[in-house]
Structure formats: C-alpha cells, structure tokens
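Meet my pick.
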Amino acid sequence: MAKQNGCKFVLVDPQYTDSASAYDAWWIPIRPNTDAAMMAGMAHYIFTSNLQDQNFINKFVQGMDAGTMPDWAKDKENFKDYILGKYDNTPKSPEWAAEICGVSADDIKKLAQLYATTKPAALKASWAPGRNAYGEQYNRMAAALQSMTGNIGILGGCAEGIGKAWHAEGVAYPYDEFANVFYESIKSDRWAHCVLNYPNVKREEIGLWPGGKAGDGVIPNIRGIFWQGSDWFNQLTNINKEIQAINKLDLVVCNDSTITPSGLYADVLFPIATHFERHDVALPWYKGHYYIHRPKVIEPLGESKTDLQIYTELAYRLGGDQFGKRYNPKANRDYFLYNDAVDNAYLQEWWEHKVMAHQHVDMSWAEFQKYGIYKFKLDRPHVAFQDNVEKGVPWPTASGKIEIFSGQLAQYDDWTKTAYGYEIPAIPKWIEPFEYLGDKEKTAKHPFHLISPHPRHRTHSIFNNIGWLRETYEQEVTINAADAKKLGIKTGDTVEVFNDRGKVVVPAYVTERCMPGVLVIYEGAWLDLDENGIDRSGNPDMLTLDEPSPAGSFAYNTVLASIQKTDLAHKPGWDRLATARSHVFRRDL
C-alpha cells in the first residue's frame, strides 16, 4: 500500500532481497559491518549542505552540536564537530565513508539529499547491522540521522530501529523477590569462554553485570547448564568452542519438545509440552495491538510436561512442601499431574489484574476465552515519542532530551566497573570492527565477509526438522557471480566455507544479487558434525566469533571466511527427495 501511494524505497544491504524486488527499491550494496561509516558520511553531507532541522535539534536533542551540549560538558566532543573532523582532522565526508563501506560518494550524497529533504522519511535501522562488532554505533548513528532531520515523533518517521513500540502485559506466572536476580549473570554467547578459562577470566570478558546487592560481579564457576527456551548449542557463536566447553561440565539439562542439537549434547532431556498441549495466551512479538487466547488442544503426548510443571516438581523435590509452595503458590504437589486449573487461575489473574486494570480492557476473561482474540482500538496511529514532540513530554533520559551525547557514558572513568566493561564513546562514532573487508592483513588469509540472515523457511533453528521445508529450501551459500567465476564455482557445486574457527559444507548458489566479497549462509541449520568435526549441515555459527561488542551485541555478522570447491558431501538426508530451489529458476552463471 505504501508503494501504491507513492512511497520510495531504498535498500542498503549486501544482498538484493526479494523485498527490495517487490518494492522496486533502489539497491545500495554495502560492505558488511560498515553502516556506521556510511551514515556518518550522510551526516556530513546534511550538515555541510545545511539540511538539518535545526529547530528540532535545538528543542529536543542533546549533543548534536556545540550549542546543544549541557553546560557541564562544553569541553566534551559533540556530534557535529566529530563529523566535520574538528577533533581528529578527519572529516567524515562521503568520500571518506566510500573508502570504508564500498558505496560511492555520489550515492551517499544522493541518499543523504533524498532522506533530508523528504518529509516525512523513515530510516528503518533494522537489526542485522547491529549484530556486529561495535553494532551499537550503527544504531546510535541511525538515531543521530533521524534526530538531525526531525523524523522522530511524527507519523511516517522512525525512531532508531524497528522497535517494540507497544507494551504487552507479558507475565502471568508467579515471581517473587528472587525474580531476575542476576549477580552472576553473563552474556549467553560467552558461557564457553567462561567455562574454558575459569578462573582466569575478567568480568568484562563475559558481560558480567557489576551491580546488585552482591557488589561487583563474581566470576561464576559454571559446572552445569539448563538449556530452556532456546536451542543454545545451535544458535550461539563459535560452536567448536562450545563443544570444548560442554565436555568440562558436570551436568547439562535441556528442555525442549524436539531433540535439537542442544538436546543431543545434554545429559538429561526433559520433553516439553508444545503450545497445543498447554493453556496460554499468545502475545504480539514486537508489533500488533492484540492478545490471542490459546487453549489446550490435546493432552501432552508421552511424558511431556510444561516447563512450569517440571520446575515446580523440582522445587518440591529439592526443598519439600515449603520450597515447592514458595516457588508456585497456587499449586499443590499434584500440579505435576494436573495443571489445567492452576494455569487457568494464573491466566485469569493476569487478565483481570494486569490487562483489564492497566490497559483498560473491558472484556471479561470468560468473554476473552469465548471469542479467542482481543484487539485494541487506538485513538490515533501509534507513533513512538509523538507526545514528546507534540506535547513537550520529556524523554526518559537524564536530560529529558534525545541524547546523541550520552551524559552517562561521558562520566565514566573506570570502564571495568561499568555494565559494559569496555569503553563506549559518548557520541556515535565509526569504530573499526574486529574483522571486516577493510582489514588487509586478515583478508589476505580469509578474503570473504560472511553474513547469516534469517531464512524464510525457519524461525532461527525452529522447523529445520520439517522435511517438506528442507525439500523446498536447501541450506546453501550465496556467492557473487564474479567471485564464483574466479574460483571455478557454479550453482549446485558443493563447497567448503571455513576459517580458523571451523568449517561447513554446503551447495553454492551463484547470483548477481549479492555484492562481491560477501558470502551468505542462513542461520539456524541443525548441526551435523562428521568424524573430523566438519559441519555437513551448513551452520554458519561454526564460523562466528564469540568476542562481545561493548554494549552487548552478538557479533554474528562480523565474520571473515574462505570458500573453495570440495569433494566432501553436504548432508543429504531428505534434502534430495525433491528439487530444492538451489537447482531451479537459476541463471547458469
């Protein structure tokens, strides 16, 4: 509908996607992990062309330029002077950015002109470029562009990302003063690093939170892991490192409804009831103003139980009636066998005391169960920060403004005692990643940058075990036609993609819809190692780095790799039972 109404689309992406084709988008190929540099070049053009919305900046923004700095920080860096090169004698011009990101200076200027002069305009800072080394700088740079053009708080604009703009009441089950206690909580993708290097681990290396009643975080001596709600072993970074770590643990427990790769490496596997086998309510993931009632359709098959049934029973077995009742106040010991009444009581209490009370819903719990869905009717389109701009409501920041200059970051003097552990500049900046195509030394060994976007036929690793989907979409590596020609690779050839962290075997898809120097392997394929530790299924997390980005981002897309033809076989299984898209409707490049 937007396209039909005249909206113009621009895609900044290493790949020309199907969405871009549908929208007839202007495709701007960009080297992965360099988006912050390109946006800095756009900001330079906007400033030097005087296209910024100075009234919006003066009224709502802190630190965009010298005139909007707080009084106590007049001697600190502001964003405009950084972009113009005042501090380092390096103007972040489109020409400067072009050398880094591979986008021509003319295209950077053209896009900057288009964005700054189109009212309103939505810069949708999607998540993939943030899943990189220093990905936080990409997101902050996007917020700066949106702020300097006055595209925040208005219908048709956009505030930073694709954000969770609507708040759902999401917790129905019990929690007490021990909920979310995380004195020794670490970043999940650093668990293997912690296990392998304990006790010689620094807090900042594992993202260990510093505060709380326990004082500065204590390095945990991890001896066991409960995997629940996620296929960790398939979805976290640097799988070979995880394999080394898991062999040092005393206990690994996996909760799942299917035997995933995490389950295969577990000592204990608890079969979990699916959504069809328990009573619950479906919530919108990040957008959508609705609730859906989700009744139990069938009784759990086999020995399956819900997560709450399992943990309630464990509480009783570990601490008797007092501990079990404390964990699940509405349940008795027979909850393990009969959970319907208790689950319904929690859900009804949630509906009446949270949804009805906080969100002014007048539909009763009984009516909601009968109709099956409740959709909120909004008085106006939901626009993030509209009241901040139109009614002068302060932003939830220390200054009450959009903080392009972060007063909090600017006042840290010992980064090892912060929640981040590593320095983050007070203003958005381009920072060179751990690995990228601009690193001549590293690309001499591994000349391709690998990215791992989400496929249409899986949700992360979910549905990889569905035969029909695997017949329709084969796991593969996408490579640019010019690169493939140099390497003698054709569509359908089996290739190895590898680096110092691991190796995967996949068929190749040769195309001109991917920029040179970039490889694409979809995330989520279930791990399948041969006797030499080579993954025949094509899981890109065999190749990803577990090094953290300072603000906590998983650096899934910060990966250099090599590719070559191979005699090794890609996992055949049911992939060959039907003709996958790797072999049809393709140009013979």
About this structure: Residues 577-587 have pLDDT under 50 and may be disordered. The radius of gyration is 26 Å. The first strand starts at residue 10 and ends at 12. The chain is about 30% helix and 10% strand.
